[in-house]
Amino acid sequence: MTELSAREAELVSAHEQERPARELSGGLRLGVWIVGGLLSVYSLVVVFWPIEAIEHRMTFLAAALPLVFLCYRSGVPPLVRRLLRRGTGAAAEQPAAAEQPAVAEQPTAAERPSVADWVLAAVALAVLVYPLFDFEAFRERGSGAALTSVDIAAGLALTVLLLEAVRRTVGWSLAIICVIFLIYAYYGSYLPINWTIGHRGFDLEQIVSQLYTGTEGFFGVPMQVAASYIILFTIYGAVLDYSGASRFFIDLSFAAFRKSRAAPGRTVTTAGFLLGTVSGSGVATTVSLGSVAWPVLRRAGYPKEPAGGILAAGGIGAILSPPTLGAAAFIIAEYLQVSYLEVLLYATIPTILYYLGIFLAIEIDSRRFSTHAVEVDAPKAGRLLLRFGYHFSSLILIIVLMALDRSAFQAVVIATGIAFALSFLDPEHRMGPKRVAQALAKGALEVLPVTAVCAAAGIIVGIITQTGLGLNLADIIVDLAAGNLILTTVLSGVAVMLLGLAVPVTASFIIAAVIIGPALFALGVTKAEAYMFVFYYAVLSEVSPPTALSAVAAAAITGGNTYRTMMMTWRYTLPAFLVPFAFVLTPNGQALLGQGPIGTVLLMTAVSAIAVAALAIATGGLAGWPERVLAAVAAVLLLFLEPVPIIAGLAVLAVAAAVHLVRRRRRNPA
């Protein structure tokens, strides 16, 4: 039921930024998978026998970066080609079948790495292995002693290689941004002396020392996250996938909701949440889910654009939701120096509010579009839970182990082992040696783009730290907003969204955290609130026009209009855009991150739930314009989470209800 057709597989490769782009074959494919599998084994072993942090990150990148040049084409990435084609309006209204080949193309000579690719892979290996031969001497040179000419050459070569790696994996935007920061570091002394962002300037040796030998550059926190957290979770997701969890999650979702007109929409949303636990990617979840869910939504009577909106909103929700969240959540844990479990707690209430908003919108749309229940050929939910419910155990175990003070690293490794062991309960998905090898290789290959992004983002973080640009830009933002927290927050949200249109979620979070974070800190926002605000807006860039990758993927599946699908997705995800303002703008907002007395947490959650319901009414289209305007005003007031605005919001919502009753009686007199 969950197998992808050739068309859906092609969509994944066209849209998904986190999968290898080349279709390798033969001995080369086997070699790449062997190296990937060994990288996964190394990452698992280091959890229990750790080595020095920088040495570990350098070793990890030495294995991962050469694979990028072998697994990714040197031409324009499929993602960029797709967006360019969308931008010119080509085939905007054509069904997905017209846009995609009916049969996946067979690998050709163009799929094989060129001589240049092999050279780049060899140079990447050399410049990363070179320091490891005498690591202590290398660290000493970087911590004060002069770098050698070989150090400088290797550092410059690695910089160029990382720029090329991110260009191949996620497009030109991030590479260009990195180049701008490098130029700024070198030529900053030429800026007018009265400019806030001016600095004394740094030569090549100083820049290389900062990026190549320190803990603020290539091998900083983002790289630590990729080499420790993310690789372990991609391995875990691959093991879950190969053990049959993906199929179980979708089957269970379709079995759970069968009776009502809103059941198809709720089913798709629930399936997206569960499937996202395995894929860890909004676009991949949207595409994988769409192969099964779009026929069901179509039979239920959903138009193409609302169906695409449901698919995209369900897919992106998995990145916002415990127990896995997205890659940026691991970086939050490192920046805050808290356990990953605490970050999961921060995200719990916003997740509840997010899905509450989607379910309420689905209920309204089921009436607006006169949808109906659909019979789906799936086993009974009870039977599925009895037979395959063990797939939930490893997910629950991660939370339990972290609650028992086990590290996130150890928790996910143990959960991976449990998922492997439980696979033997299902003969069809029993993980023998071949499946284990495939899962290990898949886990490593799926982390390659994130690794390239995190290492390249180290260029930006390193330059910002070296030049003091972060604090200077924070001052500019605060001054531009005249010190007003509301205006600063609005400007910050817009800035993160605009940044997210150009670069992937992980990179946009890292950049925004070091630039926008200090601006919010300066106005009294706590680090947890600021980083979670940036996190949500970085993730939501995937459903924000004009790019909205998840919505583009959903429109390609349903054949709907791309722009209208984006707007429907935006409507379904609206609570996620507004709730972050609540926990930044008001002291009681921290309750939405699970912080504070339990009574306050419950009360603020209930008030926020009413606000989300008011938003659903305002955007739903069933009520008249007077009621919808009043409901929108009520929602905004309620999300201030202070006594006076709450009372005012409830009063406005009561007026909206009264107006609706009066208007309905006039339309339908007794």
UniProtKB/TrEMBL annotation:
Protein name: TRAP transporter permease
Classification via Pfam families: DctM
Keyword list, A-Z: Membrane, Transmembrane, Transmembrane helix
PANTHER family: BLL3936 PROTEIN
Alphabetized NCBIfam families for the sequence: TRAP_fused
Keyword Transmembrane among UniProt keywords: yes
Keyword Translocase: no
Record field: transmembrane: 30-51, 57-76, 115-133, 145-163, 170-187, 226-250, 271-297, 309-331, 343-364, 384-401, 408-425, 445-464, 476-499, 505-526, 533-557, 569-586, 598-623, 629-662
Coiled-coil zones: none
Species: Nonomuraea helvata
Domain TRAP C4-dicarboxylate transport system permease DctM subunit: 159-579
Domain of life: Bacteria
